Amino acid sequence: MKQKLLPVFLALLVLAGCAPQPRELSFSLGDIPEFSGEPYVLLNDNEPEFTAEEITSDSFETYGELDALGRCGPAFACVGADLMPTEERGSIGSVKPSGWQTVKYDCVDGKYLYNRCHLIGYQLTGENANEQNLITGTRYMNVDGMLPFENLVADYVKETEHHVLYRVTPIFEGEDLVARGVQMEGWSVEDSGDGVCFNVYVYNCQPGVDIDYATGESCPEEQGGGGAADVSYILNTSSHKFHNPDCSGVSSMNKSNKQTYTGSREALIAQGYTPCGQCNP
């Protein structure tokens, strides 16, 4: 029933001026401090920026149209218990958000750098493979940054059966395909923000990994000032150990598993290789 009524409801919201439109942000990326180990920073003294016209206790959910680069716009909802899912989440693997890359690092929980991040979490509105609600986000942003706020809203709504205005705006720089972060706002309606009230910027980053936001490509984070010089190693692709070229273990290595590598030691370790215990490369 929800899927059949949603297009009509969205059309009515557009006519009423309630659909998510391009927003004039109250901040710029230049105002956001560099990531320093915390997944988010407060915006506007943690006060959300909903206008009087946007405040309602009627449940709704709206999602911005993809732009010319295939990027998501703001997702906006008044979350009520009636919007929450009553079944397990379905597959979302068919959606490839802008900047999507499949890449794994040992330093990432679960290995995969990127998740298909819901702007409005599944537990709040039950959206599955909605391309207007999924962005390329790091595991760190998804779990450490966004999930605690999603859980806060979900728990509040379930416990009180009240409503929460909830808006997530992906923040892109220029024509970047991957968002630099997201603005998350939440405000509980019936108690005027006493139960839920936040306005935060969540960094779309991953400790230990450098991200090219223009394309979504990534590499292990360089350590130190200018980065270490490239060095040649011999890899055993079966044991996932790396050796100095003159290591005695190289001569006994199966040729099919032997591979020459030139690059940084840190990059090899990030890819899951361990140094040989004999030559200690």
Automatic annotation (TrEMBL):
<keyword id="KW-0255">Endonuclease</keyword>
<keyword id="KW-0378">Hydrolase</keyword>
<protein>
    <submittedName>
        <fullName>DNA/RNA non-specific endonuclease</fullName>
    </submittedName>
</protein>
<dbReference type="InterPro" id="IPR044927">
    <property type="entry name" value="Endonuclea_NS_2"/>
</dbReference>
<dbReference type="GO" id="GO:0004519">
    <property type="term" value="F:endonuclease activity"/>
</dbReference>
<feature type="domain" description="Type VII secretion system protein EssD-like">
    <location>
        <begin position="61"/>
        <end position="186"/>
    </location>
</feature>
<keyword id="KW-0540">Nuclease</keyword>
<keyword id="KW-0732">Signal</keyword>
<feature type="signal peptide">
    <location>
        <begin position="1"/>
        <end position="19"/>
    </location>
</feature>
<dbReference type="Pfam" id="PF13930">
    <property type="entry name" value="Endonuclea_NS_2"/>
</dbReference>
